[in-house]
């Protein structure tokens, strides 16, 4: 019998309030749980803490300098202040320096899930001063002709979230870092194109980027389309995993897909199909009306009533002449999940057979 040792919560002081924490938690995690707002640009809760941007620094009593809250573990009795005048001033200067390196500070939210993080912090801290304007780092890869990911490294701030999510979450290690200082660059092996690398085009790097340096190229085709972006939570139909996604729309047009970071099955992850394969919905070759065969076997357009009647007659005839097991259904992975459910009900309840499958079954 394995005995489990109960871990007793310990206490620390956070902004004058005594709070509890579990050994192993960082100051940032404790502060987030107690709803203290601490800014960050290199942090992603799915990744190992990095401590690169230094925006999450806090004052720790007894420490000579501010410490990064995302990498400093909480210890019993420590006294932490998250929002002093000195710390807030420090954060503003850091943001001004980050902004000084970027070509532009406002990017379209269609670029990615986290693309507005830098923009929002610049506005919150009134850090658009331009007083550090000078040399810029990063060099965009306009020559990369892949259809999915925009590599606009003029906006890169070297937070390395893209590199880390590719390694830690996907295990692809398709991108890495070369050089140092102003010559730092996100790159593939031998500085090649993404399609020639180990990239699986899952889009994780796009969705974690806080500046839009990596962007959803397919979604950006609709940047000039008028109207606000609305998000609708649904389930990706392409396989049986059940990944939660947010469909982005402008009016009646789907303009992109973003993973649901709180999706129980995927926790922000998607495959290339779930992330980028929505073109079929609005494709100009998509059939919008039924077709039936005439007496000579040629397809012609028909009304929905005629098409449904023709299909019903065919099912009824097959069942009558050859029995219920002559009926076999295959649901489409491009149809909504609700349609797949209806399809299996139609086969199982309507004909009393389990001969139903899905073309994207995993």
Characterization of this structure:
The chain is of the alpha+beta class and 362 residues long. It has four domains: 74 residues, Ubiquitin-like (UB roll), CATH 3.10.20; 116 residues, Alpha-Beta Plaits (2-Layer Sandwich); 61 residues, N-terminal domain of TfIIb; 68 residues, no CATH class. 23% of the residues lie in helices and 17% in strands. It has eight helices and 16 strands. A hairpin with a 6-residue loop joins strand 3 and strand 4. The radius of gyration is 27 Å and the shape is elongated. The model has no long low-confidence stretch (mean pLDDT 93).
Layout of helices and strands:
Elements: E1 10-14, E2 17-21, H1 27-33, E3 57-60, E4 67-68, E5 79-81, H2 85-100, H3 117-124, E6 149-151, H4 161-170, E7 176-178, E8 185-187, H5 204-208, E9 214-216, E10 230-235, E11 244-250, E12 253-259, H6 272-276, E13 291-293, E14 299-301, H7 304-322, E15 329-331, H8 337-351, E16 356-358
Parallel strand pairs: 1-5, 15-16
Antiparallel strand pairs: 1-2, 3-4, 3-5, 6-9, 7-8, 10-11, 11-12, 13-14
């Amino acid at each position: 019998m394995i005995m489990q040792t109960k871990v007793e919560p310990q206490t620390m002081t956070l902004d004058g309030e005594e709070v509890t924490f579990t050994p192993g938690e960082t100051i940032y995690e404790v502060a987030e749980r107690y709803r203290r707002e601490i800014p960050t640009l290199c942090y992603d809760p799915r990744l190992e803490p990095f401590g690169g941007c230094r925006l999450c620094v806090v004052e720790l009593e007894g420490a000579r300098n501010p410490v990064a809250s995302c990498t400093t573990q909480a210890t019993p009795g420590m006294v932490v202040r998250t929002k002093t005048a000195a710390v807030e001033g420090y954060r503003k200067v850091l943001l001004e320096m980050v902004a000084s390196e970027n070509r532009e500070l406002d990017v379209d939210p269609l670029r990615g899930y986290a693309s507005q993080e830098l923009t929002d912090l610049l506005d919150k801290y009134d850090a658009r001063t331009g007083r550090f304007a000078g040399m810029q780092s990063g060099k965009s890869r306009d020559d990369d002709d892949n259809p999915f990911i925009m590599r606009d490294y003029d906006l890169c701030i070297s937070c390395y979230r893209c590199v880390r999510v590719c390694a830690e979450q996907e295990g692809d290690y398709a991108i890495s870092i070369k050089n140092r200082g102003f010559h730092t660059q996100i790159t593939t092996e031998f500085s090649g194109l993404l399609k020639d690398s180990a990239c699986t085009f899952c889009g994780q790097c796009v969705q974690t980027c806080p500046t839009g340096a990596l962007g959803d190229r397919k979604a950006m085709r609709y940047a000039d389309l008028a109207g606000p972006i609305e998000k609708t939570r649904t389930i990706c139909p392409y396989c049986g995993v059940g990944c939660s996604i947010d469909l982005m729309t402008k009016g009646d047009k789907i303009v992109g897909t973003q993973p649901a970071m709180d999706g129980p099955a995927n926790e922000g992850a998607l495959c290339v199909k779930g992330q980028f394969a929505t073109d079929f919905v609005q494709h100009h070759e998509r059939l919008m009306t039924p077709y039936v065969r005439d007496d000579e076997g040629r397809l012609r357009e028909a009304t929905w009533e005629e098409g449904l009647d023709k299909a019903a007659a065919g099912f009824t005839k097959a069942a009558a002449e050859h029995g219920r097991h002559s009926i076999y259904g295959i649901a489409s992975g491009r149809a909504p999940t609700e349609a797949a459910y209806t399809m299996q009900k139609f086969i199982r309840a309507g004909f009393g057979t389990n001969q139903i499958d899905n073309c994207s079954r995993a």
